[in-house]
Amino acid sequence: MPFGVDLILHCSIEKCFKETATHLKVKEFYGKVLKKTTDLKTDACVASSGPVPAHIRHALNMVHPEVIAKYYGCGLVVPECMEACQVLDLGSGSGRDCYMLSKLVGEKGNVTGIDMTEKLLEVARTYTDYHTQAFGYKAPNIRFVQGYLEALNEAGIEGSTYDICISNGAVNLCPDKKPVLQEAYRVLKEGGELYFSDVYSSGRLTEEIRNSNVLWGECLSGALWWEDLMQLAEEVGFSPPRFVSGAAIKVFNKEMQDILGDFKFLSATYRLFKVPRGAGKPREVVYQGGITGMEESFSLDSQYTFKVNEVVGVDGDVAEILTRSRFSDKFTMLPPGGPSQTCGASPKAGAVNPFELIHHRSDVPGSTTGGCCGTQPTGCCN
Length: 382
Fold this sequence. Notes:
Blueprint: E1 6-11, E2 16-20, H1 21-33, H2 54-61, H3 65-69, E3 86-90, H4 96-105, E4 110-115, H5 118-126, H6 128-134, E5 142-146, E6 162-168, H7 177-187, E7 188-201, H8 207-210, H9 213-217, E8 224-225, H10 226-236, E9 242-248, H11 254-260, E10 265-273, E11 283-287, E12 297-299, E13 305-307, E14 311-314, H12 316-324, E15 331-333, H13 354-360
Parallel strand pairs: 3-4, 3-6, 4-5, 6-7, 7-8
Antiparallel strand pairs: 1-2, 7-10, 9-10, 11-14, 11-15, 12-13
């Protein structure tokens, strides 16, 4: 049966969500076919290598081995400034990222994981008490919910609730990406962020590729053309996506290579903010420090790195992000029209082609995490 055929209706009082053959096939693949990460035939759904800050490495090392063994993400998804934040993990799987983030947000924060695959949720829920005790918490700051990323409301996920939504290789497994972005936008607070790692293609994929059962499970059939992400974000209301980091994907299977032809794929991390589009003007800003793991410099994305006490010119979109998000108390916005003291390049605007950037550069920055929400005077996480 071809993917995308509607099979089952999951109804609530408010609306119905149509589960497709794609959803069923993906659930079967991740719940029954895959037993461990080494069963994968590409490296699309395995975390990319790279330096991991000590505090993140410590949190990862505290996650139970069985939870890690069932992990199929496509990157290390750890945004900065997470202490005391309310975080939603879209497609939480076995819960590896959720438990890592549970440690990083601390007892004053909380983490919700949502996934459609019951087998993986069983693994995640099994170890709630284990991690609560390991982290030294009086009560769990984490919960796991079964549901669909396209229908968070039906799973009881309320609007304007979360400071951060993360996702690690799950959006591409959804046949229709726009409802996923719409739901993420709905549940985020004003100034909130969708920070996610996923698989992208160099062009719109053919029907043959999109109808391949195995390639769906391997995170390739559902890969979004990176330019379509720019368009979808605009339609939903997010600020223009900021490319953080990425890596080319290798396909080991000859049969898959023949189906994929000349298409190229990469795993990439983007950040989208719930701030007004086009409302800001270019500004000069100064990073004050204070983000754990980024005490001397902070990389917002592949275009902007801020050093402590250095004046940097930013475009209007970034000015809005730094003014309205959880990063606001970490930056000083200089008055417009004053004498320029800008260090480095002029403000940069416009979409970045990640395939060109990955091809030309080997130093595309990654991201670390740190405490921000609990210390911000504006109370972004309250």
